[in-house]
Write a structure and sequence with these properties.
Order of helices and strands: HEEEEEEEEEEEEEEEEEEEEEEEEEHE
Oligomer: single chain
Strand order of the largest sheet: 1-26-25-24
Structural class: mainly beta
Largest sheet: 4 strands, antiparallel
Number of helices: 2
Number of strands: 26
Strand content: over 45%
Distance between the termini: 33 Å
Length: about 325
């Protein structure tokens, strides 16, 4: 793969006033050739982890040097990656319907995987899709039903919650689900936002941080009602409480007021299949955007040659929160 990391990106990333810029700047910083997803920014490492689902790869972008290193996971599709608290360069990664610990500096890929959990037993064509860690260090992650030529079996998947104690049997939180995707919480942890992509909605739950209980699910934002093209995919939240949502097959990222459910902004991306978003950089003011070239025809690829790339948006006037890390005591010894 060809890596493009422009000096301008490094300059903006290290500019402490970058988030105050009035004109957003969108740059392509990595050209992939598959289905990029799952960005996760580590403040401790000053690095962005992200995956290529179809390429079965986990990438790590060093925020200081711009270098990108890669791990190939031969076992199967990789879709989720988060860092583990108090364990630098130890990640939790999914492959197929399983979760593994993986030391990033290990010499081998699959041989260094340490199995933690398995879900959706009896559904061999399901796989884990998206996930996020809450303020208690628990991983919320969901699955996706069997997918053939872009068509997914409906209502065959689940949203789970995994902590350091229930890894043998993660707790079922929402079922049925079709394509479990973006998750975000308000800063006071009173609400959790959730996307099941085929619904074309961003939903919200009342959330109890201590117990992890969800209740009173309702629709915050409807793509249909707001004439937004594509389907909602990955999602993050900024310090003003606004949601940023990737529009798969919509070619853009949208900003939504999480209180009023109002569409505030749209940012066009030079790729139709926008898959996820994540705040990063020293000021958490850079919005990293993953995209996909999966299933695009030669004619479509000719029209959008940057599909499958990682983009960075600076100057939105917004910034994010530090990403939570998965909490698991003595994970390095597991």
């Amino acid at each position: 793969m060809k890596v493009i990391f422009l000096l301008a990106i490094l300059t903006v990333l290290t500019n402490t006033n970058a988030y105050r810029s009035s004109a957003p700047l969108i740059k392509n910083i990595f050209r992939g050739d598959g289905h990029l997803e799952g960005p996760h920014w580590s403040i401790e490492e000053n690095a962005l982890y992200f995956v290529d689902i179809t390429g079965q790869k986990v990438h790590r972008l060093d925020g200081q040097t711009g270098n990108i290193t890669t791990k190939y996971i031969g076992y199967g599709p990789v879709s989720l990656v988060v860092t583990v608290k108090n364990n630098p360069k130890l990640i939790l990664v999914s492959s197929r319907s399983e979760l593994y610990f993986l030391p990033w500096d290990s010499e081998s890929g699959d041989q260094s995987l340490r199995l933690l959990s398995v879900v959706d037993l009896g559904l061999p064509n399901n796989r884990i899709n998206d996930g996020k860690v809450d303020a208690k260090g628990r991983l919320w992650f969901g699955t996706i039903g069997n997918e053939v030529a872009g068509v997914v079996d409906r209502d065959k998947a689940t949203l789970y919650m995994l902590d350091e104690h229930n890894y043998a049997n993660p707790e079922n939180k929402v079922r049925p689900v079709s394509v479990s995707n973006g998750i975000a919480w308000t800063s006071d942890n009173k609400y959790m936002f959730y996307i099941d992509s085929p619904t074309r909605n961003v939903d919200v739950f009342d959330f109890n941080l201590n117990t992890g209980n969800l209740r009173n699910r309702r629709t915050l934002f409807s793509f249909n009602a707001n004439n937004v093209t594509g389907v909602p995919d990955g999602m993050t939240i900024d310090t003003d409480g606004n949601l940023w949502v990737a529009c798969y097959k919509g070619g853009k990222v949208i900003k939504i007021d999480s209180r009023a459910g109002k569409l505030l902004e749209q940012h066009k991306i030079e790729a139709s299949q926008v898959s996820s978003v994540m705040w990063g950089g020293p000021e958490l003011s850079t919005l990293f955007v993953t995209t996909s070239r999966r299933d695009l025809t030669p004619a479509q690829l000719a029209q959008e040659p940057e599909a499958g790339s990682l983009f960075a948006i600076q100057g939105t006037g917004s910034r994010g929160f530090p990403e939570n890390q998965y909490l698991f005591a003595d994970a390095d010894k597991y």
